Amino acid sequence: MDNTPTTDTSAPAALGLLADKVAFITGAGRGIGAAAARLFAREGARVLLAARTEAQLKAVTEEVRAAGGTADYVVCDLADAAGARAAVDRTVDLYGRLDVAFNNGATIQTPGPMDQLPEADFDHVYAVNLKGVWLAMVAQIAAIRATARTGAIVNNSSVGSLMGNPELPAYGAMKRAVNSLTESAAVTYGPEGIRVNAIAPGHTATEMIRTWEADSPGLVERLKAHTPLRRAADPDEIAQAAAWLLSDRSSYVTGTVLRVDGGARA
Ligand SMILES: NC(=O)c1ccc[n+]([C@@H]2O[C@H](COP(=O)([O-])OP(=O)(O)OC[C@H]3O[C@@H](n4cnc5c(N)ncnc54)[C@H](OP(=O)(O)O)[C@@H]3O)[C@@H](O)[C@H]2O)c1
């Protein structure tokens, strides 16, 4: 099957990296997901924002609209199978298609050695950070197939998936499994022109890090010291990598886990 994109490379570059695309973003109420919603809309996409906290989703949606973008939101808990599917379907109901998806929403665990983690907490991290990504991907593949036919998915993993993660062992395990799901999906859906990649962010200034710092004082300074660029990423710097991987500019990239980590794993 020939799934070569039909982009005319002799024409002047389109206005936005994601011009004319419909994008679905989880965890879009704050942090990296909110930065992605703002960026993807600036780059020409119509965006649907999903997360649990309506007030945050509403605020980001209104911000995007005030800047001239097209956005809407849906409240959903990624741990709820029906809710995750309904959120993806809402994108197609609203905008008539799905081209790209950024599976970014995730939860952090209470930091500490794995023998101290309550079983219920492990189950929650599994339900949101791994099963939730799988549920969303399954719905997204179906929606892309039924509408745009070809497309791209980016899963937000973590640099913490690439090594032992003694402070966040369940979180690290789920993120490593997300890398595996990403690679498997890339192989399965590549022949029909659906690309699937992951990004592995390093230390990024968001609520997730503030929560971790509250439990582990001094964390932020430790992370900076272990990052060659000696600073945290701004959420927009992470969203930029996702935007590129979702765009036609990365048309021959699939099955990769792209570190966006200030050199932390170099
Ligand atoms: N910050 C970092 O240093 C860093 C580093 C590596 C990877 N990451 C990854 O980057 C992604 C974004 O994290 P962030 O740093 O931007 O954290 P954040 O500010 O805490 O944002 C997390 C987002 O996920 C949503 N979310 C959490 N649980 C959810 C659930 N059950 N159902 C639906 N949505 C849910 C949150 O909204 P609600 O709570 O309203 O649902 C929020 O919008 C995550 O995948 C994280 O693992 C972050």
UniProtKB/TrEMBL annotation:
The keyword Disulfide bond does not apply. SUPFAM superfamilies: NAD(P)-binding Rossmann-fold domains. Pfam families: adh_short_C2. Keywords: NAD, Oxidoreductase. Residues 21-202 form the Ketoreductase domain. GO terms for molecular function: oxidoreductase activity. NCBIfam families: PRK07231.1. Belongs to the short-chain dehydrogenases/reductases (SDR) family. This is 2,5-dichloro-2,5-cyclohexadiene-1,4-diol dehydrogenase. It comes from Streptomyces aurantiogriseus.
